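User: Can you recover a sequence for this backbone? Please restate the input before giving your answer.

Assistant: Of course. Working from this structure:
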């Protein structure tokens, strides 16, 4: 559900399917793992950014995700899903560990003098962002399965209408209609403070 679908990647100009890349990476082909990274890094980053609401932390978690994936590439085997689901599962576990470990401590970071010209969000903004994300996810969970999948693919993963249609096994017109109904339903579900 989370990956970029059945689009193939290229190594040295040759189109390669994701599971072929996994098998090549398991055999020690670093270019194959690089192609997997190129293919899924944006999906993982968008997922993590949506969950944590902090760009720097999302970059760190994304890097850690691919480091852990590289370490355990030998343990993955085909299970009928896109390889992207494996990367997102690793990312989700890292985010969960981070939230769990930071629940009981408050970190206050100070900016370097050169960073004073940048405006950074404070803890209040992070709390509001987390609350808004949690409420949005709660509302998305109330949608029907097709609407939920459409919203996830289109707006959380950032897939195009054509890519979403291919993932869902529907035509583009059906996806547009489904997306329209899902967005209208979300507008009804969202509290006023979040609209």
């Amino acid at each position: 559900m989370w990956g970029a679908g059945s689009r193939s990647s290229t190594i040295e100009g040759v189109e390669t399917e994701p599971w072929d890349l996994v098998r090549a990476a398991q055999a020690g082909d670093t270019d194959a793992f690089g192609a997997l990274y190129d293919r899924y890094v944006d999906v993982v980053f968008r997922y993590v950014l949506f969950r944590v609401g902090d760009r720097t932390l999302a970059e760190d978690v994304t890097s850690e995700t691919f480091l852990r994936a590289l370490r355990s590439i030998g343990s993955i085997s085909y299970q009928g899903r896109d390889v992207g689901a494996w990367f997102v599962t690793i990312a989700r576990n890292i985010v969960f560990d981070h939230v769990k470990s930071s629940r009981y401590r408050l970190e206050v970071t100070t900016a370097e003098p050169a960073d004073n010209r940048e405006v950074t969000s404070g803890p209040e903004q992070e709390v509001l962002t987390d609350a808004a994300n949690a409420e949005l996810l709660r509302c998305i969970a109330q949608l029907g399965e097709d609407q939920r999948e459409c919203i996830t693919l289109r707006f959380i993963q950032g897939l195009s209408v054509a890519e979403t249609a291919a993932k869902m096994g529907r035509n583009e017109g059906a996806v547009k209609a489904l997306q329209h109904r899902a967005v209208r339903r979300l507008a009804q579900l969202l509290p006023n403070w979040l609209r």
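That completes the design. Residues 111 and 120 are 9 Å apart (CA to CA).
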